[in-house]
Amino acid sequence: MRVREHILRMSTDGGCFTGASLSCVDLLVYLYSRFLNVTPETVADPSRDYLLLSKGHDVPALYSVFAELGFIDSTRLANHLSVDDDIYWHPNRNVRGVEFHSGSLGHLLSVGIGLAYDIKRTHGSNRVVVILGDGELNEGSVWEAMLVARALRLDNLIAIIDRNAFQANMRTEELIPLEPIAAKVDAFGWSVSSVDGHNFEALENTFGAWKPIADSPQMVIAATQRGRGVPSITDRSDRWFCNFTADEVEALIGELHGSAPATLKSETLIVR
Amino acid sequence: MIPYEQCLLDLANADDRVVIMTAENRGHMRNIPPYLGDRFVDVGIAEQTMIGAAAGMALRGRVVVTHALASFLTLRPLEFIRDDVGIPALPVIMVGMVPGVLSDGNGPTHQAIDDVMHMRGIPNINVCCPADIDELVDALPVLARSGRPWYVRYHASERIVPHVVPFEIGKAHTVIAADAEQVDVTILTYGYMVQHAVRAADQLIDEGLAVRVVNMRTLQPVDIDAILHCVATSRTIVTVEDHLRQGGLYSIVAETLLEAHRTADVLPIDLGLTWFPAGRLPDVLSVSGLDSTSIATRILHHVGHSR
């Protein structure tokens, strides 16, 4: 809830990718608090687990999780879009905890391959998690990397698709249909599973007893909702990038806590 | 084992951080995989994934030497080079095979004649263009030790001239020095064209001209002092390159002169602004005006000397 509040507070005075951030909040909270072997003290430890945010525009969710877990001081979130800090619309490695910058889609599965390969080669037991957007699967480089990851037998590589069913302007199935994703990824030789990306019990069932599967990278398709937690901006194609007024933000935070739906006048900024 | 294979093996043996990658371009490293084991990675025909994965390995402290045909290496994953290697300035060395006219019979898709332009156009990416196998072998360990990203225009012909001056980043090498301090012509060149420039210079010297030939060796960083010294001591500067007019050495010389508030008589000999006709290498050179006789003739005509 606090993470969602942070995201909403970053959705004004310049705005951010609110919808995409709210869809992966629960995933990131779960992964950083229960699954990933990394803490603010071990961000440079070669034996840590790595998380790469390939759909970098949901970085408000990552930074908000970092603030709650002590990777960064939560007061830094107020520096969003300040040229004096590195907190902007996509991840920057200068922010503690960020493993690699992103912004252009379709890059970090291949970077994850390099990390995972080197870990295996040096007999490490750490894991590499790459968060992909579902719209990001339009990029051919993701599928190219899937082929290579299987060829290199990277059983320490886990990709998670934040399957919120929207890309920038519309539903994925309306623009470039992706289904059946599971069958496609399976055909690439990966092990595939699905999970409710907002249900901590379900996430625990998927990741709690995680084990490598011989020679096989693993893909988890996490069913999520764009704008999850705030009904008036949930599952809407026009609430991807949001720049609300301060009053609207307060109303949306009220809505998050169960108040009446916010009245929104701000229109979505079309950046793409 | 060919010298480049030995060079890669020596590099890997001397430094356990080194990993060799290729996008199924094995022609110049066919014999080394058994010696390198898991430090040799062939990702198949997947240049984008190769560059991204090389960045991932470099994040874990590796120095990664990647290979593909120069046109595919520089263009297909251009954004991966910019974003994943250039922005974080990771020690990834990108070795482009058959650059420039060396793609001879392949046709325009394979012609890396814009590679210097693209690579030097990315902040943090450095560019090295060895004149022969000796210079390549000398350079590679220096580039690996530098901790910086490099694009290498692969060229491994037999030694052209003795490399009496040790390879140094950002230092040009004068391969033909005239007796006089003031010369008629200085040819600035790099890579495969060094040998043709040297032969052209021999012809010009026979015609009675005082000629100097400078092998630039690295184009980013470039030896600014050498360029300005040559400008100060030459009646005419000639840039010779198997590259487009834009973005290569001619552009570098122009930028250098402008920044130094200087001007000079500069004759560019290059591929102009178009692809070259594909064919056998000697024919490609002559039809492009890049064989030694064509170079010499162009220069003689330019300086008003008839033969």
Oligomer: heterodimer
Overall number of strands of chain B: 12
Instruction: Let me know the CATH homologous superfamily of the largest domain in chain B.
Output: Thiamin diphosphate (ThDP)-binding fold, Pyr/PP domains
Give the C-level CATH assignment of chain A: Alpha Beta
CATH topology call of chain A: Rossmann fold
Principal-axes geometry of chain A comes out as globular
| Elements of chain A, N to C (H/E) | HHEHHEHEHHEHEH
Give the integer mean of the pLDDT values of chain A.
94
Descriptive account of the structure:
Chain A is of the alpha/beta class and 272 residues long. Chain A has a single domain (2-223), classed as 3-Layer(aba) Sandwich (Rossmann fold). Chain A contains nine helices and five strands, in the order ααβααβαβααβαβα. In chain A, α5 links the parallel β2 and β3. In chain A, α1 packs across α3 (59-69) and α2 (18-35) packs parallel to α3 (59-69). The longest helix of chain A is centred in the first third of the chain and has 18 residues, at 18-35. The mean pLDDT of chain A is 94. With 307 residues, chain B is α/β, with parallel strands linked by helices. Chain B folds into two domains: 3-153, Thiamin diphosphate (ThDP)-binding fold, Pyr/PP domains (Rossmann fold, 3-Layer(aba) Sandwich); 173-302, Rossmann fold, CATH 3.40.50. Chain B has helices at residues 3-14, 33-36, 47-59, 70-75, 78-86, 115-120, 133-146, 193-206, 224-232, 249-259, 281-287, 292-302; strands at 18-22, 40-42, 63-69, 92-97, 126-128, 150-153, 173-176, 183-189, 211-215, 218-220, 234-240, 266-269. In chain B, the strands form two sheets. In chain B, strands 2-1-3-4-6-5-10 form a seven-stranded mixed sheet, sandwiched between helices. The longest helix of chain B is centred in the middle third of the chain and has 14 residues, at 133-146. The model of chain B has no long low-confidence stretch (mean pLDDT 96).
